[in-house]
């Protein structure tokens, strides 16, 4: 049997040509064995009509096996030649023939160097994507933390607004002045809150790009 893998032929036929030839060989061989058994049974029936014949069934079986061996040796030689012809002329796809699903390789040919360059580029892009995904995850974690901080800041601002309203209602300017420093801090907190909102917008924009 041929040792050539014939992978391209297997892609086209759906089976390897060697497998096809092996099945044909087994089928012919089984038919040869069955034929010799039929011949042997016919000979035995003929001998029953000649009681004076001294040939025993055991001798018939030995002769049948000997003849079968002779036939098998010649069959193997003939089949070897037939296999060679079929694998070369019938079950072989010429080197200049492309299967329909491989036509794209003819339209866009690539050398090994170009293919390797594409592979390297793909690996680099995958590496960059993983880095971007990791950075995005870190930004989302920071956003969640900033949301919690923002909620606390809003509570503080509401508290300061409430204090100012109380001072205004009761005309206690001295109380308001006593909280002047706190009011300045409130403005600083407002600036921080604005910065948090800007970062949140940037993170959302980054997530849309991913």
UniProtKB/TrEMBL annotation:
Tagged with keyword Coiled coil: yes
Compartments, record wording: Chromosome, Centromere, Kinetochore
Cellular component annotations (GO), alphabetically ordered: MIS12/MIND type complex; nucleus
Chain segments annotated as coiled-coil in the UniProt record: 115-206
Keywords: Cell cycle, Cell division, Centromere, Chromosome, Coiled coil, Kinetochore, Mitosis
InterPro entries, alphabetized: Centromere_Mis12
The family this protein is said to belong to: Belongs to the mis12 family.
PANTHER family: PROTEIN MIS12 HOMOLOG
Protein name: Protein MIS12 homolog
Source species: Calonectris borealis (Cory's shearwater)
Source organism phylogeny: Eukaryota, Metazoa, Chordata, Craniata, Vertebrata
Gene: Mis12
């Amino acid at each position: 049997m041929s040792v050539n893998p014939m992978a391209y032929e297997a892609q086209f036929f759906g089976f390897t040509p060697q497998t096809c030839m092996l099945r044909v060989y087994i089928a012919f061989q089984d038919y040869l064995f069955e034929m010799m058994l039929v011949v042997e049974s016919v000979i035995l029936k003929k001998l029953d009509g000649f009681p004076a014949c001294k040939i025993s069934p055991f001798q018939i079986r030995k002769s049948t096996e000997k003849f079968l061996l002779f036939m098998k040796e010649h069959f193997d030689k003939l089949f070897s030649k037939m296999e060679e012809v079929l694998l070369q002329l019938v079950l072989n796809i010429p080197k200049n023939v492309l299967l329909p699903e491989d036509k794209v390789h003819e339209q866009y040919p690539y050398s090994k160097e170009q293919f390797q360059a594409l592979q390297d580029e793909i690996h680099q892009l995958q590496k960059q994507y993983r880095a971007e995904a990791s950075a995005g995850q870190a930004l989302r974690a920071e956003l969640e933390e900033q949301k919690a901080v923002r909620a606390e800041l809003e509570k503080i601002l509401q508290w300061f607004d409430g204090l100012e309203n109380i001072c205004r209602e009761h005309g206690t300017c001295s109380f308001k002045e006593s909280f002047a420093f706190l009011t300045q801090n409130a403005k600083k907190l407002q600036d921080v809150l604005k910065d948090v909102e800007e970062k949140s917008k940037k993170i959302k924009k980054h997530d849309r790009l991913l």
